[in-house]
Amino acid sequence: MPPAPAPPPDLDALATPLAWAGTDGAVAGCNPAFARWLGVGARRLRGLPLAALEFEGDALARWLAAGAPQEQVRLRRLPLAFPGATPRFADVWVGALEDGGWLLEAHPVDEFPGEDPVAALPSALSAALKGLAHELRNPLAGLKGAAQLLARRVDDEQSRELTALIGSEVERLAQLVDRLLSPAPPRPHAPLNIHAVLERVLRLAESDAGWAVKLVRDYDPSLPDLAGDADRLVQATWNLVRNAIEAGAATVTLRTRAEHAVRIGDEVHPLVLRLDVVDDGRGVPEALAEQVFLPLVSGRAEGSGLGLALAQQVAREHRGSLAYRSRAGHTVFTLLLPVVQPESDEEGNDA
């Protein structure tokens, strides 16, 4: 076995996650920041192939196989995880150590300044949105009235379902307009079933794309309810699905899973609901990789560039996170939502 490389000095005091490997590519150690960020003990990482930390894809493995150049190489938005755990996304620099082996430096993407859509939204854009919202009020009122009249005249179940969908979406848009014109504190979160939210989104997708896109449900039926705002989650998820459709996807999959002991920001949550929106479209353009969540950034000439910024804001309203990984033919947007467990009283019963 080749000797383990000597790590750079004073790593324990650094806040940047760092790990190093020997010439055989196996992890020889890491600093506490790397172990905390990845959510696993440093001892469990030792001896693991460095390339095995890449959650999906082989960018890191291919680079290691090619040998280490003198200068650091940057791998953008790399998903890293201990095998079987939830991935963390980071821009990764990998370089050679003086006595052989490699040093990996991870910069979590959510720590980069300037990616907060709320902070990036200038006052001029806010004023423009309020003006647009004011202009939308009258057409929405007309649509609502037309939907109500139409509902009285249809007599088959499918038509009633479609008119009800029109009415509920008009009402949701009207509430969004009111929120833009008169900002108010967020509504109190209430228990909701995430699959009921997703069914509303799929109904919208079926109405929008028809049979042109295959919509796949991959649900975990054992997931508990979570506390949230159903309308806001519909809006966020519909933005993700619509982006997939507009990126030329032939198949869009909505996948739900439970994750345990997941770190979101500075907090570790015992139970987290993971929602993946998976599509086989063109993917996120490389030029937009670092800016995709900023407002007014869009890969389409006709796009508003607000959908992903709003989706990320909704994630944050629920103490969650939104991230993605993308290549041509395979894009996954992952929404993590903490599930608050009911408190127990002193006798051990649910409060």
Automatic annotation (TrEMBL):
Residues 131-341 form the Histidine kinase domain. It holds the Pfam family HisKA. SUPFAM superfamilies: ATPase domain of HSP90 chaperone/DNA topoisomerase II/histidine kinase, Homodimeric domain of signal transducing histidine kinase, PYP-like sensor domain (PAS domain). InterPro entries: HATPase_C_sf (IPR036890), HATPase_dom (IPR003594), His_kinase_dom (IPR005467), HisK_dim/P_dom (IPR003661), HisK_dim/P_sf (IPR036097), PAS-like_dom_sf (IPR035965), Sig_transdc_His_kin-like_C (IPR004358). It is an enzyme of class 2 (transferase). It catalyses: ATP + protein L-histidine = ADP + protein N-phospho-L-histidine. Keywords: ATP-binding, Kinase, Nucleotide-binding, Phosphoprotein, Transferase, Two-component regulatory system. CDD domains: HisKA. Its EC number is 2.7.13.3. This is histidine kinase. It comes from Luteimonas soli.
